[in-house]
């Protein structure tokens, strides 16, 4: 049985990046500083501090790709732009 995967929606890099809000910051993942970054996740500490983790374009795309492959593996539908939304 041949499984056709032509209907698979592959989003354009730019479409994925457009789902995030970008600002100059530091990337938590590759340690790049002063780069265009998007908020990836927020961490609340027990003492009430809030850390913001940001990731650069390259890392966001890699994380999106990982998320897509993971969803694929589990037969789930992948929705881009959900990184850091708290939904695994
Ligand atoms: Zn990065």
Report on this model:
The chain has helices spanning 13-17, 57-73; strands spanning 22-25, 35-44, 50-56. The mean pLDDT is 85. The relative contact order is 0.18. It has a three-stranded antiparallel beta sheet with strand order 1-2-3. 25% of the residues lie in helices and 24% in strands. It has a domain at 13-73. By secondary structure, it is an alpha+beta fold. It has two helices and three strands. It binds zinc ion. Zinc ion is lined by residues 27, 29-30, 32, 55-56, 58-59.
Shape, principal axes of CA atoms: globular
User: How do the SSEs run, as a string of H and E?
Assistant: HEEEH
What level of helicity do the residues show? 25-40%
- The value of Rg in angstroms is 15 Å
Q: How is the main sheet built?
A: 3 strands, antiparallel
The unreliable regions are none
Structural class call reads alpha+beta
- Which ligands appear in the coordinates? zinc ion
Mean pLDDT: 85
Number of separate helices: 2
Question: What is the topology, as strand order, of the major beta sheet?
Answer: 1-2-3
